[in-house]
Amino acid sequence: MIWRIRSKTRSIITTMASLRPSSVKLSPFSAITNSFTGFHRNWLSLRAEKLGRVDNAWLRLSPSLKEKSVLRLDAWIISAGHAQELKSFKIQNMSISDGRVDFFDKMKQRFLSFKKHKYMGEVEHFKTLAEVQSPKFMVIACVDSRVCPSNILGFQPGEAFMVRNVANLVPPLENGPTETNAAVEFAVKTLQVQNIFVIGHSCCAGIQTLMTMQDDENPSSIEKWVGNAKVAKLRTKEDANHLSFDQQCKHCEKESINCSLLNLLTYPWIEERVRKGTLSLLGGYYDFLSCTFEIWTLDFKESNAVSHGSKLSVKDRVFWC
Description:
Elements: H1 2-8, H2 10-19, H3 30-37, H4 42-50, H5 57-60, H6 63-81, H7 83-98, H8 100-119, H9 123-131, E1 137-142, H10 149-153, E2 160-165, H11 179-190, E3 195-201, H12 205-212, H13 221-226, H14 230-239, H15 245-264, H16 268-276, E4 280-287, E5 292-298, H17 300-303, E6 314-320
Parallel strand pairs: 1-2, 1-3, 3-4
Antiparallel strand pairs: 4-5, 5-6
Helix pairs in contact: 14-15
């Protein structure tokens, strides 16, 4: 820590030392110490004696040893006595260098605005939420920073239980446990949501990876994950092979949503509720290039007439623009 301080303040020490008379000798740390405290360096020795930090043996030390002792004392004062000043100096530099502090200041202001205008205005509602949550929606969306469901669709605290992953995928039951199906299980069995809403979006990097990746003996973590939507890729190649790559990706983005809806039916406790009509499965597609939103509902009766993995039937398709 001390050597980092010395390296950062070398130019300051040199400048201050050049302003002192040549007859006065300073230790490398004295210029900093004196500039902070405003006292002559001899004050350090007197103060140390008064506090009992040195004994009479100090007076018998040779000048060279005294110099080394003062150096160590100076360093100790800098590292311990002026930690707050140095910390502030570091934070100021962070703000200048990369703006991180400015961004966190904006976050602070947003939070305080939320507290003042939202939380305090609905304090009883938030007290109720502190006791129990009963959302009507389970939302499965992409991790993409441009497609936050709460921002786009206006979900308020307590309205939607959410999980976000790369390319908004739901693996089938046979693929084993994941964070996504664990969240879905909690939402359905414990929270008893009435709707599961899978939301995809335009320009999805996860789908682009799916469309371009080749069979590999050592796939990356992303490739392993988006491999859950291989069926959507195959259907896209069948149905939209004549289209451009960008158009194929858009087709696959929507097809992967339908595959996830069908994959949800591989979970018996979901299929049972969908069959009884107590749970609805919905798909949504947000195109942020045109700021439009498309939504549809899985038609269980028609989809159930075919085996899992086949194309599903939808109903109540609407387009918001």
